[in-house]
Amino acid sequence: MTHVSRFPIPKDVYFEILDELYWVLADVKKPEEMKSFLGDFFTKTERLMLAKRLALAGMIIQKYDTDIIKKVLHVSTGTIYRMKEKLDRGGIGFELGVKRIIKHEAFQAFISELFKRPHHDQGIHPLATT
Prior knowledge:
Layout: H1 11-27, H2 31-41, H3 44-61, H4 66-73, H5 77-88, H6 92-102, H7 105-116
Helix pairs in contact: 3-5, 3-6
């Protein structure tokens, strides 16, 4: 489980640390290097949380039905609606990144594969809407 210290750091230190993180992420150019960096930097739980958040946002932007998202990603209705609100309230940078990812062939192939798995096939077509 992710743990944040109860001892706060000064805001200027916080923003400086974030700037360094952004720099590192922007500086890594090769996908294999990024995969290695993120694999070492985040815990398995953190990677799962971030990956599900990204897939969730992508599926929302692509207008997948809420019931389909719940079954495929194993998330609650509340989680889906919180993400919808985040995307609706702005989140321009987040939406820009997600839109870039959903155009990526690998992401589309991943989503398609999810629906081929028996434990996800519950008689709902992936593009069905209500």
